[in-house]
Specification:
The protein is of the alpha+beta class. The protein folds into two domains: 54 residues; 181 residues, no CATH class. The protein is built from eleven helices and ten strands. The strands form four sheets. A three-stranded antiparallel beta sheet has the order 1-3-2. Strands 4-5-6 form a three-stranded mixed beta sheet. It has a two-stranded antiparallel sheet with strand order 7-8. A hairpin with an 8-residue loop joins strand 7 and strand 8. Helix 7 packs across helix 10. The chain is elongated. The N and C termini lie far apart (72 Å). The model has no long low-confidence stretch (mean pLDDT 89).
Amino acid sequence: MATTVKNKLNSLYTRLTPGEPLTSVDLAALGISADLAVHYVRAGWLLRLARGVYCRPNDTVALYPSLRLLARGVAGLHVGGKSALDWHGIRQYVAQRPELHLYGWASARMPAWFVARFPAQYRRKRLFAEPSDALLHVAPFENRNDTPPVSAPERALLEMLSEVGLRQPLQEAREIVESAYSLRADVLGDLLQRCVSVKTVRLCLRLGRDAGAPWAAKLDPTALPTGSAKPWVSRSPDGLLVLKP
């Protein structure tokens, strides 16, 4: 019995990558029952992060595998908005400990073990007409199998702009747009056509034109969902925001 327990533990350690958390379901797939997992925890061979979530003892939990684990349980979860822009090198400044912006389709709360290690805010957002299991222009970061799903720069920009007037300062958004000169007009156009937020579409067109961005000149506003002929008006901490078609 002791040999079997040790062999299963050795097999687990061999399969785990450094910093990777795993769930009870993962353990069960490796032949480790809930009772055996409790034994490993009591013996100091596994560390319990939360109910049903474990990692190797004395291991520093890593961001990428943690995000991949969370994405398995939350429909459409991905790194987006300002965080995705930062990951793609589009930023105004480097924060000491930036807050991670996560988006998804389902109402969810990030677990305490995760946010204690990686300050994050999660937002349920359905900005585009798309299926939850095939998000538009969201893919593993740098197209690597070991990375979490991340918005392409064009999608991330629109996610960030959708927060203007709520949690995103307009001036910072304007400065980010000015630095996002290398966006792909075809990808941005595809996303704008499927965007369900008139404010986001109009704001993207306006800030892009104001910045003289190359991609803005290639977009046809008449082919995009800019809404009615009436101005879109909102009052925010930045003042009154008026967006015309």
